[in-house]
Sequence to fold (254 residues):
Amino acid sequence: MSFEKPDHQLSLRETLNLTRQVLDKDVIVFVLPSIIAGIIMGIIKIMLEPLSPASNIDVSSLFSNGFESLISGLLVYLLIQNVFQSLVNSFSYGTCTVAASKSLESENVSIGGSTRGALSRIVPLTIAGIITSEISTIGLTMLIVPGILLIILFSMVQPVMLLEELEVLDSIKRSIRLVRNRIWFTVQIYASVWLITSIVANIVSWIMVSLGLRVGLFGNIVYGIATSLLAPVIPIALTIQYYSLKSLESQSND
Fold:
């Protein structure tokens, strides 16, 4: 089965349908990196638990010392977690982005080739992930709507960085230029795939909590593996949308 990269803005239905087809064609290539990432993040979360302010709260000291130490500790903990999350996501999402691009370009798709493509850009991908997630988090904290818009505007950073080989700041600027004229289409796609994966993740978490399995190293690893099965949907859909946006840009320049 071969695909053609979009030469126009695909509808939400067309994007989701093509996402499913691309995933089905090379499911192992997409799912395996996501499973590895899920296992790694499960282990990392267990290792970071002692650093969590929530696990070291002394109620009496909160009233005597104020909340400054708790807030500063929480910020440091979240920053450390964000660094590891960005690193792991750069590997798994990056591998899926390269694989999806090769599939849409009718090139040979392999785990080795896709992984090498992601690892060759792992440092700038991680840096870009940290920068964009921190900016988006600040936007969500201060005003929800601007935060959501920032997430959407930054959504093409990874495809741009991997497929156009731009550096961090250039990739961020390029993502904004691509998305801003088709932001509503991108919102629909991003929101849909995020909703799908979030619903599945919450269902899995609820089942594991009900069975008493959502604790410890084993629980975190099992949860990471279970939720990683649908994780490739996001980078595949965003890669398809990248090609849609790029085709529109080419048409406007003609």
Summary: Residues 168 and 189 are 24 Å apart (CA to CA). DSSP finds twelve helices and no strands in the chain. The chain has a mean pLDDT of 84.
